[in-house]
Specification:
Strand order of the largest sheet: 1-2-3-8
CATH superfamily: NAD(P)-binding Rossmann-like Domain
Distance between the termini: 16 Å
CATH architecture: 3-Layer(aba) Sandwich
Oligomer: single chain
CATH class: Alpha Beta
Strand content: 5-15%
Number of domains: 1
Radius of gyration: 18 Å
Structural class: alpha/beta
Length: about 260
């Protein structure tokens, strides 16, 4: 979802060299070394990973391999060549118990396997550019707005969680920011998410409203009423003021970015 969009939004003067799972097993250092020798990149945007949050609870070894071991191999290859690397990370490194948006220097405490493997990936790439985002959706891959539209075509009643809060972020606006940070080349942790915040319930209602879909009864429910294998943080809002100061402007409000995505 994110890597593919980054390839499509490479800035002028940058030649993206996309690598898929079919091209290279990133968890095999020898494979990664051969790939680097072949492509000779000047920088690395590492967006690959195991992102199936619930499945990670029962496939922990696979999640560790894809998220941690792959990041170790890629980071070491980039480090040997002295080239900048950007690692895409997640709000799920936090436990959601904060009463304010999370800053980059807040202590992480993941609640689930996915969050733990992404935190371990961050530690493996501690000298890289680490970009945490949240609640991603975009033109490619599976995501919440797409699921809501699919369900709305099948039923007239939806129950959606109303006690988890975050900032839905479109890859259409996030991908260009990744290039900005990678080309800037300054290591560190950055939070990058759309402005504002909402619950999944509020996001579902916004999706239907912006698409002009009526007649769907959307009812709020609690996380306890909608149990999932992986625990989710109740509060996933990220403080993006560091990135805003660097860029001179924030990412758009989540509702504005959602409207742009749905219109496209």
């Amino acid at each position: 979802m994110l890597g593919g969009q980054a390839v499509r939004t490479a800035p002028a003067g940058v030649e993206p060299l996309p690598v898929t799972r079919a091209d290279c097993d990133l968890a095999e250092p020898d494979h990664v070394e051969l790939m680097f020798e072949k492509l000779r990149p000047e920088g690395v945007l590492h967006a690959a990973g195991f992102t199936q949050v619930d499945r990670a609870e029962v496939a922990e070894e696979v999640a560790i391999r894809d998220n941690v071991e792959a990041t170790v191999a890629v980071a070491e290859a980039a480090r040997r060549r002295g080239i900048p690397m950007l690692l895409a990370s997640t709000d799920y490194v936090f436990d959601g118990k904060s009463d304010r948006p999370y800053r980059e220097d807040d202590p992480p405490h993941p609640l689930n396997v996915y969050g733990r493997t992404k935190l371990d990936a961050e530690l493996a790439a501690a000298d890289a550019i680490i970009v945490r985002s949240a609640w991603l959706y975009g033109p490619h891959g599976r995501h919440f707005p797409g699921q809501i539209l699919a369900l709305a075509a099948q039923t007239q009643e939806l129950k959606v969680v109303h006690d988890q809060r975050g900032s839905p972020t479109s890859t259409l606006v996030l991908a260009p920011v990744l290039w900005e940070l990678l080309l800037r080349g300054e290591p560190g942790v950055y939070h990058a998410a759309c402005e504002g915040a909402c619950t999944w319930y509020e996001l579902a209602r916004a999706v239907l409203e912006l698409k002009g879909i009526r007649g769907i009864d959307v009812k709020p429910c609690t996380t306890a009423e909608f149990p999932r294998p992986a625990k989710r943080p109740a509060m996933s809002v990220l403080d993006c003021s560091k990135l805003t100061a660097i860029r001179g402007r924030p990412l758009p409000h989540w509702r504005e970015a959602l409207a742009e995505f749905l219109a496209s």
